[in-house]
User: Fold this.
Amino acid sequence: MFVNITIPSWSDFAHFVPEAIMFGAFLLALMGDVIVRGRKPVVPFLISLLGASAALYYSFASPPIGDAGVLGGLVMIDGFAGFFRIVFSFVAVVTILFSWSSEEIMGKGREHKGEYYALIALMTGGMMVMAEARDLVMLFMSMELVALTSYVMAGYMRNSLRSTEASLKYVIFGAVSSGIMLFGMSLLFGMTGQMTFVGIRDALVANPVNELSMLVVLIMIMAGFGYKIAMVPFHFWCPDVYEGAPTPVSAFFSVGPKAAGFALMIRFFFTVFQSIVELIDWPLMIAILSAVTMTYGNIVAVKQTNVKRLLAYSSIAHVGYLLMGFLLLTPGGLQAILFYLLVYAVMNLGAFMFVSAINNSIKSEELSDYAGLGFRAPWAAVMMFIFLVSLVGLPPTAGFIGKLYLFTEVMREGWYWLAIVGVLNSVVGLFYYMQIARAMFFEKVPEDAPAIKIAPLHYVTMALLALPTLILGLYWSEFKVLADQAIAGFSAF
Amino acid sequence: MADHILSWMTFFPVIGAIVITFIPKGNKEIVKTVAAAAAAVPLILAVRLFIDFDRALDGFQFVEHFEWIKSFNIEYHMGVDGLSVPMVLLTAFLSFICIIASWKIEKATKGYFALFLLLEAGMMGVFCALDFFLFYVFWEVMLLPMYFLIGIWGGPRKEYAAIKFFLYTLAGSVLMLLAMIALYLFTTDPATGQTGTFNMLHMFDQANHTGILTLDNVRFALWMGLFIGFAIKVPIFPFHTWLPDAHVEAPTAVSVILAGVLLKMGTYGILRISYPMLPDQAKAFMIPMAILGAINILYGAFCALAQTDMKKLVAYSSVSHMGYVLLGMSSMTEAGINGAVFQMFNHGTITAMMFLCVGVIYDRAHHREINGFGGLGLQMPLYTTVTSFALFAAIGLPGLSGFVSEAMVFMGAFPVHQTITIISAVGIIIGAAYVLWMLQRVFLGTRNEKYDDIADINSREMFTLVPIGLVVLFLGIYPMPVLNLMKVSLNSLIAVINVAG
Assistant:
């Protein structure tokens, strides 16, 4: 009754070029860090930056053709996975670049700076595998690889109480939720005797399982994914971790692992659970969770006085928006999610990067310390404003287009109540995002305000993110095509 | 420029705004000159539009139609008809006047004028767009500069006023967004025979509506979604509470734009989008709309009566005057709808004069308390003359433009809604009361010696007020130039609605 394990051949590894680059960069960066010692970890930085850039270039230049189940069916290299390779390597490039000028990462008293860059490379590789896994073992392995790396990265500022607390919280929550998920997976394996997603689906179709046990499995597995993407009620770690971790790391967490969690969740649910929609109305469950998640995230964000915490709750709210596309069970819904993830990666990274760039000068993320930033650092503040407008979802920014696609698909499938909840949430969102704009532009510059110095590298990376945020709001055809093709090549349909 | 006149009118201010951003700090005079030039071009083009517009033609003119996002069937589609031309003229005219009126802005001059020009672009775009997506983009884009103009250059409670304005408007426009998506999803594009188009002209044609768009309760929900979105902008009671705050806190020129152009976008939206797309619902909503109009007229007038702040008084008078527009629109008669659109234009010019007059005194006395003045007529004779002219225009004195449009509204509404029209007419008396009472307290009576040395209105301020005054006077004597513009288009709109009813 066990699956047929075919021995992977060497030719299988031809499908793994970006992953191989990232894992190779990880090892080389580690070795380089030991061999070349200096005040600044130039070698690991360059290796991981080059590795991520190469992976980005390769993912663009040669997207996967067809759908190849490789390594004996453990992973699936299809257009869907190819899309996420682009997202992850882009996020990695931006994060690596940005970290180089960040005081939180490179400042005095930080240790193991070289390993930091190596870990980003490792995590990026892990996320790519998450988007490809289609077997319970691979699912768990890739999720844990990413999780363990992120625990270390969250606690990177070893002598900061907040950072270590963040790391510990992350570990505890992570351990519990992946334990629950593993339990659910073992039940699923027990019921079907299959490890691959496809195998499980076929077994479930052939021998229907009773409703209650399926519900238990569903909830347990949803707990694992819910933790990964920070869906209410599995979100409690999120604000603390984002606040405590160094800001570039929070930026990376808020887009990278979240997108990877979505990728894996989509592949798993659309392969395995799509067959049991008749049995359990899980799209309705997700719809309720989606509405609760966005409402909770937005309402709690209103009260925040720390910008990083505010952005953390905003990222929870965005998970709610993304889930709207998930429960539709249509290609259109998935295309909307993928496009939104792309947009979200750009705008959310930008917002966090601004926080980090400002933190270099004022050593604070409190909203009250942002007073008058619009006059102290006008260009950076204007770029931040673009990110904020995009996060609200107003034209002419990419965030609006992303939301427009999501709402269009939600309306198309007739989930009108969810669409209404969604748009009203945007209004709440406006209020707290504009709190930041208000502090920056409407408040007077305090007398004793420290001068803001923004590193040239930070200007470059922020501009690199602000431009697409604006341009994608006016012309986005090519990028939508990217998302559409990813879904066209998605094996679940 | 003659080929793409509407695009030039919309985007020339954007070019001006970009140029202003790159002018080095400190060159305030250059910034202002560039801004004035960037606003003058749309004004010149508007005159050209006024001359070239074919008044006898039904349908859209100066149309520009390009593909934008093919996969989503979004087009760059601009055009004007008799409904939009008066609004375009008004926007170009008031924007230029307001740039001149803002000459004294000292704080962050560059930012102010750049944002002002962006605002003009947004408003112009709203009145020219014929693609619903494009319309929505302009509609929302305009909020951002407005938020900053109130929030940075406003009065003491500017932050509260700015976010309140933003939140109210966005709450309305997200409902409009959902209605737009529903219309997009279930409207057939005749060119391809498939559903999914943002082209307003296709949405106007009831034969293109499919699926849920043919269901009565869905149409009602769409109507309400669109109506609330537009009602907040007008603002229609009970969505009006953002208006006094925003008007009072905003700097003078921004108040002028708010009252003169922004409010018209609400009623324009109803006439441009709600009426032709959902004519059956429009017909069914006649009585509620007339009642809302009457409430606006009376409630606005009574609130104005109670104000002691001149700017707040003018703000509430706007609520009242927009009520006439609603009353006229609800009648679905030729005189009523033509009067409503004419009233939109006239209110734009008259209220602009009133706000500019309040700005003049505020610049000198640094307060706007009605009871803080007295006998200003002796101290500022010229200013008193101009302000009295504006105030009499607001009452609707015969010979000035406000009279013509209000009379048309009442003539059009009376046969349809007799009781409501009679009740609304009381608003005119209250209107006269609050205006005359203010006139008496500020300009007549015992003079306040504190202001003996106050300077009279200067030539720059006269330059902003006189052109508007001339328009008001001219249209009061001979309104045909504007009435001729809109007649054909509005009559075909009425025909569409009456057929559906």
Chain B has a mean pLDDT of 90. Strands of chain B lie at 61-69, 74-80, 188-189, 194-195. The CA atoms of residues 339 and 407 of chain B lie 8 Å apart.
